Amino acid sequence: xxxxxxxxxxxxxxxxxxxxxxxxxxxxxxxxxxxxxxxxxxxxxxxxxxxxxxxxxxxxxxxxxxxxxxxxxxxxxxxxxxxxxxxxxxxxxxxxxxxxxxxxxxxxxxxxxxxxxxxxxxxxxxxxxxxxxxxxxxxxxxxxxxxxxxxxxxxxxxxxxxxxxxxxxxxxxxxxxxxxxxxxxxxxxxxxxxxxxxxxxxxxxxxxxxxxxxxxxxxxxxxxxxxxxxxxxxxxxxxxxxxxxxxxxxxxxxxxxxxxxxxxxxxxxxxxxxxxxxxxxxxxxxxxx
Length: 289
Prior knowledge:
Helices cover 46% and strands 17% of the residues.
């Protein structure tokens, strides 16, 4: 990194929701991201990677996610610099159209255990059964396996259809919107079509003091935006929209099977230590909505 890059204000133009750390604290976290990935790579065009896409955005959600990544890099790098560097290289090799690896989840997941009174030691490459060891002091240890179970077929479908609803909402002639949309079961094609056809009128009614709307399997309720963030962005619609549904029944069984398999694998390899250490599985499971 050049001296000019070091002096650049990475907070400029970004919406910063992290009032407790301010722009100074955010600058420090974003600098950690720049040091790890390089500014040239982060700003490369066209973007081919999810971290590049995130860096190019200026909204509050993107700022928060970049700050979390910067914090994770800071927490792990002191004792695990080589391990972090290899994970960053793997993350950079991902493309927006290709399969995403679990390296980003490993960095974020293991950093959660690096807190006061605990030390995380990341495992060597290709260590079977676990990805890191937590040292609690006094001889107390825990082996941690970090598994990102990924996004399953029906979840991908759900997110694609939710994005279509989001586009409709973003086109409404209003300045701010808070909305929770809940499905009573996993939505089918006709359910999404019904929601698309009725969403604009439903939002209009909700903004005129109607406290609840029902559209087939869907329940719509207004939600206040966070205090002091009624204008999350300076241009366009500020909105916080949550769309949820139960998982498709087949995917629920699939996820449970993967969790059971991961636990069995961790237990099998934990036996070789013989030091009474605990075993911890940290899994990234498909979200509910």
